[in-house]
Fold this sequence. Notes:
Blueprint: H1 3-12, E1 23-26, E2 34-37, H2 39-82, E3 94-99, E4 102-114, E5 120-127, E6 135-138, H3 139-142, E7 145-147, H4 179-190, E8 201-216, H5 222-225, E9 233-246, E10 251-265, E11 271-275, E12 282-286
Antiparallel strand pairs: 1-2, 3-4, 3-7, 4-5, 5-6, 8-9, 9-10, 10-11, 10-12
Amino acid sequence: MNQANTLGIEAALACERCGGKGQLRHAPPPAPMSGIWCARCYTRLVARSRLLHAIYRWRVALIVAVVAVVTWAQHAQAQPQAAAKSLRLAVGDRVEYTVGGQQERGTVTGFYKRDASGAAESFYVVNDRTGLPNQYVIVWLNQPRKLDAAAANVHTAPPMRARAPCPSRTARQGARASAELARALIQCHLEDNSGSYAGYTVNADITEFRPGQTVRGIDMGNALVRYADPNGWVTNVFVRFDTRIYGSSGVTVFTGAEGPYMVYVDYNNRWTVGNGYIKRGEQTRLALPR
């Protein structure tokens, strides 16, 4: 081998760091490469690689420790709030609560569950911002607090009134109901608090009363013949109305209910109201008047 070739090989095997005589070596892990280093520079490279790897491991451990401490601190801070599982409230009270990280306000309209002392564990509100009724609030989850404010008027039902006086139901076969009698009978029918409304006070406001034809019972079909003389008279009326049902914890409101009603004399010689409403109306929930 001539001198030129020898010099070329020695130059190719020069240490990449100091330029001294080196040799081909694998780089310290985790670097996926090889290089030419002298023994001294390679030793330093290995030491630095181990140091950097140790620093990386300690940094990861430090981050994990910081996250754990922050999580524990948040949990510890939330513990007193989580301990509140019930809140003493009354219908009409104003509350502030959290839903999806957003603060909301509303008026209590009723209760879903109470604890042994009578405090509310879950309840319903009318939301101030959206106006939506019957929003469900859980004390331990939504963390409500009572506000020192009166219920918003828009969320409070008007005072209840006594049931409208009912006309005499006694009649004779072949009698026709006048518009005034039909309206009074239908009003009494709408405010009937028997059946599913037993124990409640029902107020109905008729907003539209439109008398239709008065026809023979036989013209109304076979369904009516089971209850009334086929030759008796049937007064047809279209009615639109609003209903308020007053309970012990709140008021359920149906707005814009409508449908056809029939007024006729049944086989027992009594005025009878037959209904077939086609629209129940929009349901909302209001607080009891104070």
